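[09:14] KT: can someone run the structure on this one? pasting the chain below
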Amino acid sequence: MSYQDELDELDEEIRQELRRHRITTHQSFSNPAEMLSFLRTLPVRKAVKTLPFSSCLRRLRTHFGVSIEDLAEALTTSLQSLEELESNDSILWAQPPYVAAAVASAFRLHVDAINDLTRNSYTIALVSGRISDSDLATKLMSSWLAEVRQSLETLGETDLIA
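[09:31] RB: done, structure tokens below
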């Protein structure tokens, strides 16, 4: 299955989920708090397709009609941090774990899904040559994932780590 096929399949699964919950896409929100309240009503996502974290985040954000600027404001984080998380050119575990946790909280990504997306990001970074020392990258990635989990606990997101 090609990368585009994976993206299309994920998009269709999101549409089906929205139909099940009678949610329309491209909501308009009067403020960032309203947007976060809406997003946090979505069911927890434990299973994800073989996408890197960046592509999954970008796909979810655009599917729900959320601009990256609005998301940054809602999560009280920098636009640059979110742009790095959505970039296929950056190393995911070099990004602040608390930002990844805030994004996971907003889009209801379970820690298992975060682990899978991070492993997919690792594979792409390794194949693309952005990782020169795979052992070191694996250690850094594991440490980063533990910090993301800790950040989710700090946020009180027990349903995302259970």
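[09:33] KT: thanks! Residues 85 and 94 are 9 Å apart (CA to CA).
[09:34] RB: yep, looked fine to me
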